[in-house]
Amino acid sequence: PLTDSFMDWETVWNMGAQYPAKQWSGEWWRGPELGIYMMDPYIWAGVGTWPPGITLGMTPAQHVVIRPVFEHIFSLGNKNSPKYMLTEVLIGKMIAEFLYSRRTTGLRMPGDVKAFIFQFFNKFVFDRDVSF
């Protein structure tokens, strides 16, 4: 509801070229959706943003400030960096444990995968264990 979707390459390309100027002028606002995939609101409930969601809905002025912080947090560095190698081990271990835990019940899509991704990001970014 209240969502416009454009599916052909040329239309999307032409609209994308207009984004920077139209966002900075305030004419366009980009919401927290990723194409036709709408983010689950339960993950973002109670964080104080409206509409609830990730930072895709922020203004360009906010984006300029927060992007370097996000790049620092989420960058793994080169393949030989300590952070890269530790993350490679972490994700391998977490995937193995996740799949092992689903051996009897099976994998429920998409809920189990969403929960796993949420768990991984919490561990990777905040070093916090989250269980479901």
Features:
132 residues; 2 strands; two-stranded antiparallel ribbon; mainly alpha; single chain
What does this structure look like?
The protein has 132 residues and is mainly alpha-helical. 55% of the residues lie in helices and 3% in strands. It has 5 helices and 2 strands, in the order αββαααα. The chain has helices at residues 9-25, 41-44, 60-74, 82-101, 111-126; strands at residues 33-34, 37-38. It has a two-stranded antiparallel sheet. A hairpin with a 2-residue loop joins β1 (33-34) and β2. The mean pLDDT is 82.
Output the radius of gyration.
18 Å
Q: Give the number of helices.
A: 5
Q: What string gives the helices and strands in order?
A: HEEHHHH
User: For the largest beta sheet, what order do the strands appear in spatially?
Assistant: 1-2
Q: What's the end-to-end separation, in Å?
A: 30 Å
**Strand-residue proportion:** under 5%
Helical amount = 40-55%
Average pLDDT, all residues: 82
Described by the principal axes of the CA atoms, the overall outline is extended
Class computed from helices, strands and strand pairing: mainly alpha
Task: Give start-end ranges of low-pLDDT stretches.
Answer: none
Major sheet, described briefly?
Answer: 2 strands, antiparallel
Number of strands: 2
